[in-house]
């Protein structure tokens, strides 16, 4: 009996330490991501790159760096299910959680570029990902390169379609005068924080999965995906509550495209990602496709070109159902 009690206490201690590791990992990823964005933008100004191009490319790649490091770390450490479901879960959370909760705080306007370019491209990337994984139960070097090349093509189309006077809110012009030494320090801090943050997060998540008896795919699509979405969710809700400019649907869809093209594409180039858990192809990826697909009719029914509070509630409710089923089917 004392041995059993000691074993339970030991297990609880492992879970507690793992949770601390995960939390510290998330904190470092947020800090690292912020420093990487600032240093990348400042460096781009040094090379006299236009603000518009910086906003569309440098900022977009830098902000996806935390997810990229998590997926690469997971793939290299023998946890391909986390590498894949980090992206699948993040794409679901972007629509069901971030968009849904923000719309509950205040309705979100939808511009026409949504159905002319952004949504179709997101569906193409999502369907290609499903085909690549279903075809041979892995994301190979060639398939990862294809996704990344598709992302570059998408960015080129976006940049060509923008006017030179387009306002890019994400770019801080004060970074144009930052010294080279400061940029170097920011890069070192950002890279270090991202490396250790991703390592601690993946290690902690694997230990939690093992301790509570769920698969790594479940942890990837839930804990890790939600965690990487929290900063964006918090910023969006605060902006909506203050009646400032909240998230745009285009930005969220762009994030989903980047997750597939950049995060999974580059990870597969570094190390091909096998599908090791069947629920990824039998359940999780269909939820990702479903959340992406439902956006189109949602934009055109009742209160057109707006994600209203009622629509936001439906998205959050659907996300809640998804989370319940993920753990119920573990």
Automatic annotation (TrEMBL):
<feature type="transmembrane region" description="Helical">
    <location>
        <begin position="49"/>
        <end position="72"/>
    </location>
</feature>
<feature type="transmembrane region" description="Helical">
    <location>
        <begin position="146"/>
        <end position="162"/>
    </location>
</feature>
<dbReference type="InterPro" id="IPR044880">
    <property type="entry name" value="NCX_ion-bd_dom_sf"/>
</dbReference>
<feature type="domain" description="Sodium/calcium exchanger membrane region">
    <location>
        <begin position="18"/>
        <end position="159"/>
    </location>
</feature>
<feature type="transmembrane region" description="Helical">
    <location>
        <begin position="313"/>
        <end position="329"/>
    </location>
</feature>
<keyword id="KW-0472">Membrane</keyword>
<keyword id="KW-1133">Transmembrane helix</keyword>
<dbReference type="InterPro" id="IPR004837">
    <property type="entry name" value="NaCa_Exmemb"/>
</dbReference>
<feature type="transmembrane region" description="Helical">
    <location>
        <begin position="285"/>
        <end position="301"/>
    </location>
</feature>
<dbReference type="InterPro" id="IPR004481">
    <property type="entry name" value="K/Na/Ca-exchanger"/>
</dbReference>
<feature type="transmembrane region" description="Helical">
    <location>
        <begin position="14"/>
        <end position="37"/>
    </location>
</feature>
<feature type="transmembrane region" description="Helical">
    <location>
        <begin position="174"/>
        <end position="197"/>
    </location>
</feature>
<feature type="transmembrane region" description="Helical">
    <location>
        <begin position="117"/>
        <end position="134"/>
    </location>
</feature>
<feature type="transmembrane region" description="Helical">
    <location>
        <begin position="253"/>
        <end position="273"/>
    </location>
</feature>
<feature type="domain" description="Sodium/calcium exchanger membrane region">
    <location>
        <begin position="183"/>
        <end position="327"/>
    </location>
</feature>
<feature type="transmembrane region" description="Helical">
    <location>
        <begin position="217"/>
        <end position="241"/>
    </location>
</feature>
<dbReference type="Pfam" id="PF01699">
    <property type="entry name" value="Na_Ca_ex"/>
</dbReference>
<keyword id="KW-0812">Transmembrane</keyword>
<protein>
    <submittedName>
        <fullName>Calcium/sodium antiporter</fullName>
    </submittedName>
</protein>
<feature type="transmembrane region" description="Helical">
    <location>
        <begin position="92"/>
        <end position="110"/>
    </location>
</feature>
């Amino acid at each position: 009996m004392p041995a059993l009690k000691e074993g339970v206490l030991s297990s609880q201690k492992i879970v507690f330490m793992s949770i601390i590791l995960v939390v510290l990992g998330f904190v470092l990823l947020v800090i690292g991501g912020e420093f990487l964005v600032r240093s990348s933008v400042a460096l781009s100004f040094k090379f006299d790159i236009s603000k518009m191009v910086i906003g569309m490319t440098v900022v977009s790649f830098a902000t996806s760096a935390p997810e990229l490091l998590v997926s690469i770390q997971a793939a290299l450490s023998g946890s391909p299910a986390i590498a894949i479901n980090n992206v699948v879960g993040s794409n679901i959370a972007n629509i069901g959680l971030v968009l849904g909760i923000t719309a509950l705080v205040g309705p979100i306007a939808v511009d026409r570029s949504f159905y002319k370019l952004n949504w179709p491209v997101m569906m193409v990337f999502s369907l290609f990902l499903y085909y690549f994984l279903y075809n041979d139960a892995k994301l190979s070097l060639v398939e990862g390169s294809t996704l990344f090349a598709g992302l570059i093509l998408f960015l080129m189309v976006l940049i060509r379609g923008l006017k030179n006077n387009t306002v890019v809110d994400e770019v801080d012009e004060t970074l144009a005068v930052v010294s080279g030494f400061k940029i170097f320090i920011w890069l070192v801090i950002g890279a270090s924080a991202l490396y250790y943050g991703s390592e601690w997060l993946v290690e902690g998540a694997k230990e939690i999965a093992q301790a509570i008896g769920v698969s790594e795919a479940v942890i990837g699509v839930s804990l890790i995906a939600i965690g990487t979405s929290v900063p964006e969710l918090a910023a969006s809700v605060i902006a909506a509550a203050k009646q400032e400019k909240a998230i745009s649907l285009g930005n969220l869809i762009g994030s989903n495209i980047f997750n597939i093209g950049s995060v999974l594409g580059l990870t597969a180039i570094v190390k091909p990602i096998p599908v090791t858990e069947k629920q990824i192809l039998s359940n999780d990826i269909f939820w990702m496709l479903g959340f992406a697909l439902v956006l189109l009719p949602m934009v055109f029914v009742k209160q057109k070109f707006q994600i209203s509070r009622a629509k936001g509630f439906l998205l959050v409710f659907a996300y809640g159902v998804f989370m319940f089923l993920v753990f119920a089917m573990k």
